[in-house]
Amino acid sequence: MSDAVELANPDEVVLAQEYLNLKGRVSEGRERADRLRRLAEHLDEQASKDEHALNELEGALGMAAQLQIEQLDKELGGKRLQEIAVEVLSREVKPGQAVHYRDWYALLRAAGYRARGKDPLASFLAQINRADRIEPVGARSGRYRLRVA
Question: What CATH code is assigned to 75-146?
Fold first, then answer.
């Protein structure tokens, strides 16, 4: 009987059906997870935009005034820049020790401050040249030191 069809083992048929069911669930689960990830990303972006708008409204209403003052306080200019720059330098170097103004400005930045202006480094340099407790080292070397009292 060469025309006879062999019947599959009933256990193999059950396993094959279970395989196909599981494969379908895995595929559906992956698709659902991808949709949820995209939705979560969209919601996160929207929450960030809403949070920014909320901060703007708090500032307009004066509810976040303290935060804004602290942020502005870190941007220095004029006499205040001189005072803070000299204070930072006196903490970091010994009197009489020379430091290049770029390194000094890096110390100021590391302390969390910055000079106000279009070119902060130029603003910084202009102000430290006016500071009474500072003296240049050499002619046009870019190096400065605290005056020894």
Answer: 1.10.10
